[in-house]
């Protein structure tokens, strides 16, 4: 059985960190007892200034009052993941917080999290369904699904109609969309400097263009498999009054075709972004490798690869906690491919684990694939990409709305992530829990960028449909 991090009695979570200030603190879970022992464990991440890092031998035992010895690190000291060991020998991940809640106009706080025993999605080890799956472990494993015709994904996104600003505000997932935009804005700000050059893989309709303009980048190349989406990205750019760059837009499958022959030969990138799309690459190892090849081929040493994707740990844990092969709420539905209805996955084969995803009226039964992140990290190392951060969206929210991130906390409020009562619907918050953010760095020293005074934002000629580059015949 493949270990996604939820099949063993003891699960782990990452310690509460303030990595961008070079500090790390050990935070006690409200569900732990004073005798709970906390031990630093190895992790495979490498960057010294993000949420997860590697190999820091430290044993920290709580005092009777629940306090930890003071621990801090310089900005360049590696940090590790923290595991919990309770006297019973059986541990589970701490619960996710409730939806965010804003009191007044300036104070951001969390509703107290639900008790662990009320979170069935976090208790797969003791569930009857999970025990039945373990008993069936010796049965023959299902074959992988057949290769997916990638035109299905392109057709899916080509058929999606824009619903306009007012339509988006009426959507049941409006706050979720705003949260996603806030998170991407923060992720971009953390890894981008003025003067940087960006490659945007799976750019969709160009929804992040304004974020890149705000970041002060001076070169932008974008690619997507859906032709109509790329044309809409061009239209969105043309509606900008001014920008510090003029984009190069491509249509093609960046998981199946090398970009080397289509991206201008002089183009080098400081950041590669792939938002909400890596799960399409995990149909096969070949496609995952092509993604990483396209990421690293023109990425400068020290450059960043950032993105968001489905959190396989959370998704599978939720599916295993219920009878049947489907989970759903008022805003989303996830159904495993019939080949994986037993909720078992072949050891040593992290690819082709297909499910079908529906999100409100925007995505309907779209085929996606689980991203086994340990496999992704190991594969990325072959392309000189070292993991900096992998962080569930809930944890990302907790980290970057903390007191030491005033700008990001204020942005959270001004982007209307929460409603007039200061929160969002529980179903939206639950759907947000399905996602994770990540960042890799190519070995080497990052570029210093350019002074913001040298970034020239001005009106530029519009991009015509004839200028769009087709990586293969439409």
Automatic annotation (TrEMBL):
<feature type="domain" description="MRNA cap 0 methyltransferase">
    <location>
        <begin position="171"/>
        <end position="443"/>
    </location>
</feature>
<feature type="region of interest" description="Disordered">
    <location>
        <begin position="136"/>
        <end position="171"/>
    </location>
</feature>
<keyword id="KW-0808">Transferase</keyword>
<dbReference type="GO" id="GO:0005634">
    <property type="term" value="C:nucleus"/>
</dbReference>
<dbReference type="Pfam" id="PF03291">
    <property type="entry name" value="mRNA_G-N7_MeTrfase"/>
</dbReference>
<keyword id="KW-0506">mRNA capping</keyword>
<dbReference type="InterPro" id="IPR004971">
    <property type="entry name" value="mRNA_G-N7_MeTrfase_dom"/>
</dbReference>
<protein>
    <recommendedName>
        <fullName>mRNA (guanine-N(7))-methyltransferase</fullName>
        <ecNumber>2.1.1.56</ecNumber>
    </recommendedName>
</protein>
<dbReference type="InterPro" id="IPR039753">
    <property type="entry name" value="RG7MT1"/>
</dbReference>
<feature type="region of interest" description="Disordered">
    <location>
        <begin position="443"/>
        <end position="463"/>
    </location>
</feature>
<dbReference type="GO" id="GO:0003723">
    <property type="term" value="F:RNA binding"/>
</dbReference>
<keyword id="KW-0507">mRNA processing</keyword>
<keyword id="KW-0949">S-adenosyl-L-methionine</keyword>
<keyword id="KW-0694">RNA-binding</keyword>
<dbReference type="GO" id="GO:0004482">
    <property type="term" value="F:mRNA 5'-cap (guanine-N7-)-methyltransferase activity"/>
</dbReference>
<keyword id="KW-0489">Methyltransferase</keyword>
<feature type="compositionally biased region" description="Basic and acidic residues">
    <location>
        <begin position="156"/>
        <end position="166"/>
    </location>
</feature>
<dbReference type="InterPro" id="IPR029063">
    <property type="entry name" value="SAM-dependent_MTases_sf"/>
</dbReference>
